[in-house]
Amino acid sequence: MVKDKILVLDFGGQYDQLIVRRVRENGVYAQLHNCDVDFDSLNFDGLKGIILTGGPQSVFDEDAPKMDERFFKLNVPILGICYGMQYINHEFGGTTETLEKGEYGKTPLYVNVKSKLFKNVSQESTIWMNHRDGVTKMPKGFKKQARTMNTPIAAFENVEKNIYAVQFHPEVVHSEFGNEIIKNFLIDICKCNQTRKMGNIAEEIISDLKEKYKDSKVVCALSGGVDSSVAATLVSRAIGDNLYCIFVDHGLLRKNEASEVMKAYKQIGLNVKKVDASKKFLELLKNVSDPEEKRKIIGNEFIRVFEKEAKEINADYLVQGTIYPDIIESGKGKASVIKSHHNVGGLPEKIEFKGLIEPLKDLFKDEVRELGLSLNIPKEQIQRQPFPGPGLAIRVIGDITEEKLEIVRETDAILREEIKNYELDTSVWQYFTVYTPLKTVGVKGDMRTYDNVIAIRAVTSEDAMTVEAAKLPYQLLEKLSSRMINEVKGVGRVVYDITSKPPGTIEWE
Ligand code: XMP
Questions:
Q1: CA distance linking residue 110 with residue 122, whole number of Å
Q2: Which one is catalytic: 33, 35, 82, 418?
Q3: Least CB-packed of 73, 277, 369, 495 within 10 Å?
Q4: Atom 12 of ligand 1 has which residue's CA nearest to it?
Q5: Which ligand 1 atom is the nearest neighbour of the CA of 386?
Q6: To 5 degrees, how large is the angle CA 223–CA 504–CA 415?
Q7: What sign does the dihedral 457-383-409-442 (CA atoms) show?
Q8: pLDDT confidence of 1, banded at 50, 70, 90?
Q9: Which residue from 317, 316, 318, 320 is spatially nearest to 361, judged by alpha carbons?
Q10: How much distance in Å is there from the Cα of 320 to the middle of ligand 1?
Q11: CB proximity list for 365: less than 8 A, separation 6 or greater
């Protein structure tokens, strides 16, 4: 069955991903493409409407972003937002100019409630503005539908041509009736069916995978993380044991992690082999203290181990847990560049695959989580805090030894246990301990000690791009310090890292 689809054409605005999200939240599939996407390369099956996004430029700039004019002739409704409105205006012969006063932030809006776009919207409401240019003269056949103090034409429409446009940003939460406006466009104007639900999506993806890969051998590197687990589960539901998963234990995992993760994989029903390569990794990391060097060594060795295992399977395809933001971040709308995060160090080079299978490439992180839950993947696996590919290697500052790793593992286990006891495990984004090579003097049972400093790092964040140190209760910090020093040999002092990002980063290395 062809599903209803909205095409979002990206003119470079800040909120483009948000537009896609809002459409999806209304149960309709949306796809983001660069505005200059090759028109002939697109599949228009199920296309119900097009949204043109905002953007930082002026339509009269020489290098102003443009789209193929055939998009206007597809006979589906079009909604222009901000630059999108100015672009429509410009293309149809109206005048756009730099206004006397720009508008930034919350602004009162007055609308014509008779417009289909403004059904159930109050005549006066608050919207989010972010512009300096504006429409000063509309093209022939277009009618004004809204105004603000500084923008006399804040929305227009041409019902015959099925074109609607707004100068403000309905996708931003500060626009009081933003969701109504988007919903009106999707449901009343584009006549979309709101059929997109996670349960259906899982079924769709699985049946699509089944059709394409039912007689193929497929291989997947599992990392313990959410994305690779969900991607592998989907493929496994489609082709069963023809999916061969490989879990490389590099010896840099947290306490009991390898066995817990393997247990979860078995519970999900994945055909998975654990390869214990920890000795080799530790050998290669001996006396290496530079963080980037550590990352490189781990990444390369990971690929080497995986290549060796995958070669034996002689698989046709490789599964990757690439998600939608990865594709957008790595060059909007262009071919997917795989983030090195996904399989620690990139793609195997020595094996030729017929292709990549990326079942999550249209989904946002929280959609992946929801999908994972709908597939009955255990909650602990889905709600796991992010864990870096190089693992504890970048949480032991300086060179790595088994003893130092043991100290990080044990202190980290105490931290995880107490964070869970305080029910902070879902509100804190990431929490871990760091082994520092700094030795300090202490006293235990009248005896002088000379042991290491352990740092606790716990941060809150939305996306790992900006973070704040979590305001952990003081009693919890005291308990952590006391437990770590008493229970873990080699710990002489515990400190709490209160650095935000920027200027710090989450990990210490
Ligand atoms: P930073 O330390 O840059 O971390 O603030 C941002 C997020 O990325 C994780 N991280 C990594 N993940 N390989 C990974 O797979 C790495 O080399 C790596 N370095 C940092 C970090 O844990 C945080 O979630």
A1: 8
A2: 82
A3: 73
A4: 388
A5: 24
A6: 55
A7: positive
A8: low
A9: 320
A10: 18
A11: 226, 323, 325
Task: For residues 179 and 173, give the distance between their C-alpha atoms in angstroms, rounded to a whole number.
Answer: 8
Structure confidence at residue 328 as a pLDDT band (50, 70, 90): low
Locate 487 and state its tokens.
């229970």
Report the run of H or E that residue 307 belongs to, with start and end: helix 291-313
The one catalytic residue among 157, 171, 367, 410: 171
- Sheet order of strands, 218-222 included: 272-276, 243-249, 218-222, 317-319, 355-357
Instruction: Tell me which H or E stretch contains 372.
Output: helix 365-374
Amino acid at the residue 461: S
For the record, the structure tokens of 388 come out as 């870096």
Backbone angles phi, psi at 85, to 5 degrees: -70, -45
Instruction: Confirm whether 341 is a catalytic residue.
Output: no
0.85 exceeded by pTM: no
Catalytic residue among 33, 90, 131, 169: 169
Quick one: which of 102, 117, 136 has its CA closest to 175?
Answer: 117
* Farthest-apart Cα atoms in the chain, separation: 90
Q: In sequence order, what are the beta bridge partners of 110?
A: 124, 147
Q: Quote the ligand 1 centre to 75 CA distance (angstroms).
A: 45
Mean of the pLDDT values across residues 360-380?
90
Rg from Cα positions in the chain? 27
Please tell me the residue having the least CA distance from ligand 1 atom 7. Answer: 464
The full length of the chain comes to 509
Q: How many CB atoms sit inside 10 A of residue 417's CB?
A: 13
- Structure-token pair, residue 382: 């889905």
Range with the largest mean pLDDT of 159-173, 328-342, 360-374: 159-173
Asked if residues 238 and 210 have their Cβ atoms less than 8 Å apart, the reply is: yes
Q: Which tokens is 367 given? A: 């959609």
Does an H or E element contain 434, and which?
strand 430-444
The pLDDT tens digits of the residues spanning 176-223 come to 999 999 999 999 999 999 988 888 889 989 999 999 999 999 999 998
For 203-263, list the strands marked E by DSSP: 218-222, 243-249
Say yes or no to pLDDT of 393 above 90. Answer: yes
- Give the Cα separation of 175 and 185 in Å (integer): 16
Who lines ligand 1 at CB under 6 A?
Answer: 295, 341, 386, 388-390, 430, 464, 501, 505-507
Q: 169 catalytic, yes or no? A: yes
Report the distance separating Cα 40 and Cα 402, nearest Å: 57
- How far is ligand 1, taken at its centre, from the CA of residue 89, in Å? 44
Q: Which of 157, 152, 158, 110 is nearest to 134 (CA)?
A: 152
Contact 384, 369 (CB under 8 A): no
